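Weekly structure sync, notes
Attendees: PL (lead), two postdocs, one rotation student
Agenda item 3: pending single-chain targets
PL asked that the sequence for the first pending target be pasted directly into the notes so everyone works from the same version. It is reproduced below exactly as submitted, 202 residues in total.
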Amino acid sequence: MKTMRGLAVAAGLAVVCASALALKPGEMAPDFKGTDSNGKVHTLTQYRGKYVVLEWANKGCPFEQKHYNSGNMERLQKEWTGKGVVWLSVLSSAPGEQGNVTPAEENDYLREMKAAPTAAILDPSGTIGRLYSAKTTPDMFVIDPQGKIVYEGAIDDQPTPDPASLKDAKNYVSAALEASMAGRPVAVPVTRSYGCSVKYSE
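Predicted structure, written out during the meeting:
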């Protein structure tokens, strides 16, 4: 019987690690401009003074499905937006690639999943993804109120699409937010992201 990891590889998916970081914790996060699934324009600078989480998403990716189908990602979104954090899902899949959706399709998916990001930004050109050197779905960034990156990398320490792994997972995003909001240094400010490769255009 194939393991979950074996099934992912058999489906042409693999763990992709971001070993060379173009951006580093402590650096200013680059500003961007993007339009969400409701036609609203967002920039990073408009959220200065707030914590911001960037989550690279692709609903066709088994690693993303682990977090959404289990309700884990939705729980995190609701928990942290309830504490004033801005949570932006970014979809950088190019037209014709897995994960590329229309605004209506994304809104239908968010309703179906009962997801609660502040907004889902459609980035089919990959401009925002490349600006942040996002490698995988999910790939996570936590930005502090001064606009500095305080965490970059994996959502947790379980690089598998198996939802059973969530039981013992250490969530790096929550840990970074908790520490930074309490005025403490983030103990693990960078990890290697895992998931499906972001489906950029050529």
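Discussion points:
- Residues 103-113 form the longest helix (11 residues).
- Residues 1-20 have pLDDT under 50 and may be disordered.
Action: rotation student to compare against the earlier draft before next sync.
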